[in-house]
């Protein structure tokens, strides 16, 4: 299978994976919310995010491992591949031991950290069960995932995840229908996800020759990668932890409903990135500069247009969706237009930079870009903490938006000046045009569109109609303003 076929296969499977994961991420929390209420949903979200702080211990090694594997895989250097893999496996073995200790300590103190009406035993057992789930999802098979991703076999990883995601949804829904406790539901989920690392290990054993090595691989720029991992971690996790500490579990539940929609969109766009990143990393390792630039121009143009289109549809549809999704749940106020607007803008700023971050990571430029990552961390933390009391969860969303905006323009500037040497105005023009069109379409929908739907199924025709108008309008504008990109897509 050649490079183009691998890229197409990776993108196709990634999109299918994100579609199925997105559907499951909407369906399962809805049943949990309806069955157990906002407090239980908020408790799970809070504990999961606190547990996710252990990903800081990974120290950003994932991106470094990928960058370290591209060259030996391109050269078919078995000795160096084995060295990187064995070093990574040893590292995560140590991290797993630390995670177990952290989870046990958290189970003892979580009741006192999170504002909860539940008793000590309830919260502690929830922590242990969610920790088991996190362990199998994150630590157990990560070295094997990294090797497969670097070798442009992301489709293997995500094919396995598609199966376990569907199986997990089925098992959890059956358990909820049988009136099982939330603890039993999450415990069954943990057992399902054991299948992921088992399948990865079997595949690696069959298709790769990993030989024992005595010396550890240095994994260049590992320390600098810590900063980048911290910035990514804050984007994904800090908001919920801040809300848990400074607000209520009901507020966490409200945040998680909106955030789940935005994460689905971001993951969809990241799916394309994941499919392309391995190919671009392979070309960087081979020094194919012209090919890298051409691939990036196409990748960035498509990503910008898709980001504008998908988030415009989301901006029009999100409040009607949330109103129906939380129908019958009266223990928290879920309809919050200002919060929704700021969250969507933050999602746009993150998603628009995905191609730039992918190239910087594939090129291994961690040390050179750490300043931008540090400032993003500071902006997010300081603004979110200062604004949560006067503005509630909207204040946290503003902190995320400001940090995302700064970092996006930073990576655009860095890539343009130091790696691809392309004018920043190219980005500004493309981004500006698409954003203006998106905002105009949202304003027009507010004036002329009335959505009268009483169920998620009856909301679908509205979604199809809105999507057709939005994608059509943005496609026409991009044909007029960026015809070169259209010719590249046609080729």
Describe the structure.
The chain has one domain. The protein contains 19 helices and no strands. By secondary structure, it is mainly alpha-helical.
Question: Which short descriptors sum up this protein?
Answer:
491 residues, mainly alpha, 19 helices
Low-confidence parts = none
Fraction of residues in helices?
over 70%
Head-to-tail CA distance between termini: 20 Å
Q: How many domain modules?
A: 1
Structural class of the helix and strand makeup? mainly alpha
Shape: globular
Taking all Cα atoms into account, the compactness measure Rg is 22 Å
The overall pLDDT, averaged over residues, is 81
Query: Could you tell me the strand content as a percent range?
Result: under 5%
Number of strands: 0
Q: Please summarize the sheet with the most strands.
A: none
So how many helices?
Answer: 19
- Summarize the helix and strand pattern as letters: HHHHHHHHHHHHHHHHHHH
What is the structure about, briefly put?
By secondary structure, the chain is mainly alpha-helical. It has helices at residues 3-36, 38-52, 61-75, 78-113, 120-139, 142-150, 154-177, 182-192, 195-207, 222-246, 249-286, 289-325, 337-352, 354-363, 370-391, 393-418, 424-448, 456-481, 483-490.
